[in-house]
Specification:
The chain has 191 residues and is mostly beta strands. The chain is built from no helices and 16 strands. It has a four-stranded mixed beta sheet, with no helix packed on it. The chain is elongated, with a radius of gyration of 20 Å. The termini are far apart.
């Protein structure tokens, strides 16, 4: 985490308030969109989400904060107790989140994120899953690695509007699934 003051912009601030901003990213510098940033002060809680480029901003932030917490699906949350913001009108606070051990990645259809797609981790050919989730607005997902692990697995993504895709999985990691587009119907025919 880097906390550094930047030269003040024309943005309004007061002696006891500041603008808190920064970028949320992973260890290789990839921005994390949709990260939840929560600032807790004596006045209560303020919350925002990072944009697709990882940028977040909170205006009129009191200098005396109790905590700053940042979390995103597929990453270990971080919490800074009494972060001790510098006495500057604009405070740059970049946050690096570490990925959780598991299967994580993005689901796309036609090159665009596929929000609301279901993703499961399961033994190949077995309907019962070891973990499941639904993609967020950015099409991202994360499923913890099962303990005890019994690979090989497959990660399967499906969406009623965009179709289905799967990939073999032998260890935790990052995966990209591309749904073909066009809907499909899945189920059983019963008499």
């Amino acid at each position: 985490v880097v906390a550094e003051a930047r030269a003040p912009d024309a943005a309004p601030s007061t002696p006891d308030r500041a603008i808190l901003f920064g970028i949320v990213s992973d260890p290789v510098g990839t921005p994390i969109g949709g990260a939840v940033v929560v600032l807790t002060t004596e006045e209560g809680r303020r919350q925002t989400k990072s944009l697709s480029d990882g940028y977040f901003e909170l205006k009129e932030v009191p200098r005396e904060a109790r905590s700053l917490a940042v979390s995103a699906e597929g990453f270990e949350p971080v919490r800074f107790e009494e972060p001790g913001f510098p006495d500057e009108p604009r405070i740059k606070w970049d946050v690096e989140l570490q990925p959780v051990a598991g299967v994580r990645g993005v689901v796309r259809s036609g090159g665009e994120p596929a929000p609301g797609a279901w993703v499961t981790l399961r033994k190949a050919g077995v309907r019962r899953h070891a973990g499941a989730t639904q993609t967020g607005a950015e099409g991202r997902f994360s499923i913890p690695w099962p303990e005890p692990a019994d690979p090989p697995y497959e990660v399967v993504a499906w969406h009623g509007q965009f179709g289905r895709d799967s990939q073999p999985v032998s260890e935790p990691g990052e995966f990209s699934l591309d749904l073909p587009g066009g809907g499909y119907l899945e189920g059983r025919v019963m008499d």
